[in-house]
Structure formats: structure tokens, C-alpha cells
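PROTEIN DESIGN WORKSHEET
SECTION A - STRUCTURE
LENGTH: 193
C-ALPHA CELLS:
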């Protein structure tokens, strides 16, 4: 992996462990010479992620829509800051620039970005590894929901197991590096009527 799109919150959350994890992930990716593609903000977990990488000599590319430059407080000291017009263009550009995806804790925006990448993968539009950095059990309930989707017949088991998850960033990267995508036809649940 050379370039990871990281989706994470523009807020820090109530527990300091989230900010620390974002900073540590940024540092670790810098040390491994992996470029970060992220939302371009200097606040929240996004800011901590960029801090961790930039303070350790990493390469960080931000992608931010024009209308969010003041709301998310665009970070100007990045390796590169790309301004786009819409949220969809943001996701598309982050997808184009990355060869893998990590989702950290975040809110609706993070979930929307994650689910779009999961859907594109399920449809065979990309074969990138997608990992959830499960800081302090943040994604436990989502993982349980994915299992419920399978049990209720709305998601194939193959698609469910293609989502990689760990509380350890090192372990998550190992899982992502070893990832081998299933053919798209195995990812889509075939319904019979």
C-alpha cells in the first residue's frame, strides 16, 4: 500500500483515546512512507491524523469542498490541498488518489464515506482493502449490524468478511496488505422470489 484514504471525524469525540489513535495512525503511516489522503481539515480527528503524519515527515493530501473550507477549517500546511466543488467530488478524488481505505471513528459524514466505498467494492467498481480502525470498540455495534444484515438476507457473508477490522493499527495494516478481493459476483447477495 502506498496511499490510504482515511475517513474520520471533524470532531474529536469525548474520549481522548480517539485523538491519540488518530495521531498515532498518522505517525505510523508516515514511518511506513504511506501517503494519507483525507478530508483536508485541521480540526477534530482529521487534524490529529494530519499532525501525526506531518510531524513525522509524512505526506498528507487533503481534499475539501469549497463550501467546507471555513466550516471544517481547511489546513493550509499540507503536502497538497485539493479544493473540489461537491461532497461527491471529494469522495471520488479521495478514491482516485488512494489504493486502500481506513475508517476511524466519526459521525454521519464518516459513515457515508465508508458505506459508499463498501458499496463500490461490492459492485466491483474497485478492489481496495477497506479497514475499520476499531478504537475503543467504536465499531463493535456496526460489526454486529453487518452480521444482522447477513442473517436477514440483505448482505452476503462474503461481502461481510471483506470488511477488515482491528483495534490495532499495525494489525489492521497487516490484514489490509494480505487482503485478496473476492469476485464481485460473490459479494452481491442473489435474491430469489
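SECTION B - SEQUENCE
RESIDUE ASSIGNMENT:
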Amino acid at each position: 500500500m502506498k496511499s490510504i484514504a482515511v475517513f474520520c471525524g471533524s470532531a474529536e469525540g469525548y474520549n481522548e483515546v480517539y485523538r491519540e489513535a488518530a495521531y498515532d495512525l498518522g505517525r505510523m503511516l508516515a514511518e511506513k512512507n504511506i501517503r494519507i489522503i483525507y478530508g483536508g481539515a485541521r480540526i477534530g480527528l482529521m487534524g490529529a491524523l494530519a499532525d501525526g503524519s506531518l510531524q513525522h515527515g509524512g505526506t498528507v493530501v487533503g481534499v475539501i469542498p469549497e463550501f467546507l473550507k471555513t466550516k471544517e477549517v481547511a489546513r493550509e500546511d499540507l503536502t497538497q490541498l485539493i479544493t473540489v466543488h461537491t461532497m461527491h467530488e471529494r469522495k471520488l478524488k479521495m478514491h482516485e488518489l488512494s489504493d486502500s481505505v481506513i475508517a476511524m471513528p466519526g459521525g454521519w459524514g464518516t459513515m457515508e464515506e465508508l458505506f459508499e466505498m463498501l458499496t463500490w467494492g461490492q459492485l466491483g467498481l474497485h478492489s481496495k482493502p477497506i479497514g475499520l480502525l476499531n478504537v475503543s470498540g467504536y465499531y463493535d455495534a456496526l460489526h454486529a449490524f453487518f452480521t444482522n444484515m447477513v442473517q436477514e438476507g440483505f448482505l452476503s457473508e462474503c461481502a461481510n468478511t471483506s470488511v477488515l477490522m482491528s483495534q490495532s493499527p499495525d494489525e489492521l495494516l497487516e490484514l489490509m496488505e494480505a487482503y485478496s478481493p473476492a469476485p464481485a459476483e460473490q459479494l452481491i447477495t442473489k435474491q430469489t422470489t
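SECTION C - NOTES
The CA atoms of residues 3 and 35 lie 5 Å apart.
The longest helix spans residues 16-31.
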